[in-house]
Amino acid sequence: MVAELSAQITAQIKQAAVMLKSAKSICVLTGAGVSAESGIPTFRDKQTGLWEKFRAEDLASPDAFARDPKLVWSWYQWRRQQVIDKKPNPAHLALAQWQELAAKSGLTFTLITQNVDDLHEQAGSCVHHLHGRLWQNRCNNCQKIVKQSPNPSNNAAQALSDELVNCNDCGGLLRPDIVWFGEALPEKEWQIAENAAADCDVFINIGTSSLVYPAAGLAQIARQHGAQVIEINPHPTPNTIVNVTIAAPAGRALPKLLKQISAL
Ligand code: BV8
Ligand code: ZN
Fold it and tell me: Given 3, 90, 176, 225, which is the most exposed site by the fewest CB atoms within 10 A?
């Protein structure tokens, strides 16, 4: 039996619901915390197993791939192995339901994620990825996109092997289609995110430590354009521009928030 949310968190949810009830446009940014209750460790959680001695930030860079492509490729194959059987949790499902309700009621609802897993898509959301997607590769030479879907019907272990893969078109090395530190974000997705943050009435940061830029700056852009900012995170973040913090896990808070909005 899951313990009830505290009176304080229930009050925070009520405050956020009042703000959201009158919103005409909502922009949501999710981070690794929204997938935590699906069993996917967050980006800054300590790494485990073979990767215990590595920091994610040190592996997620073009220099690391140039220096040792096999190490970085193996790390991503390991991360794919970690997420392949993970499913959306109530946070992903509540966001997908919210997006569906928004489409029926003329509410503008934009979902942006920093995550590279596909749990928002699995939950039925239309989502914009700022940092790329784990199940896609890109040729390091000609930029051709190559899907990496380890189809369970064929040899999934082979599909997630550590062997480096070359591009069929030009022979270049395939790399994960992910934005590494020091690399620019995809122009189109960043533009969508920046516009949605600037145009929204309420901006919601969910499950992100707000440490990585420029994504962490979206809340500031929203605030500068007059939006209210809500944060859903069980732990404090450096975000000082928040109007309401719901200090609870997203998988608990979001279904309650949605229910509270519809009850108003
Ligand atoms: C760029 C892919 C320039 C890799 C990632 C100022 C401006 C611009 C850039 C910079 C700047 N200052 C510094 C920079 C450089 C750098 C940066 O921000 N560094 C940081 C560390 C200081 N930024 C960049 O390099 C970016 N590129 O700026 O390029 C440029 C411009 C033009 C031309 C060339 C270059 C690129 C950044 C993208 C890096 N790639 N991911 C991969 O995944 O393998 S970022 C990485 O961190 C993750 O992808 C993740 O998306 C992101 C943020 O992490 P979070 O999602 O927040 O996860 P985290 O673990 O940190 O936190 C989880 C949170 O969840 C916690 O707060 C926790 O309390 C909470 N939580 C836990 N459980 C729950 C929960 N919340 C709710 N419910 C729960 N149950
Ligand atoms: Zn190529």
Answer: 3
Ligand approaching nearest to the C-alpha of 167: 2
Q: Which atom of ligand 1 is nearest to the CA of 210?
A: 57
Q: Is 179 in the pocket of ligand 1 (CB under 6 A)?
A: yes
Active site residue 131: yes
Nearest CA among 91, 74, 83 for reference residue 135? 83
Looking at the fold, whether 118 and 146 belong to one and the same domain comes out as no
CA of 213 to the centre of ligand 1 (A): 6
- pLDDT tens by residue, 201-239: 999 999 999 999 999 999 999 999 999 999 999 999 999
Count H helices and E strands in the chain, helices first: 10, 9
Last residue of a domain, one of 145, 178, 211: 178
Q: Ligand 1 pocket: which of 5, 34, 38, 43 to mutate (most atoms <8 Å of CB)?
A: 43
Encode pLDDT of 230-255 as tens digits. Answer: 999 999 999 989 999 999 999 999 99
Catalytic residue, candidates 92, 129, 131, 225: 131
Q: Peptide bond preceding 176: is omega within 30 degrees of 0, i.e. cis?
A: no
Count CB neighbours of 239 within 10 A.
18
Structure-token pair, residue 84: 């392949």
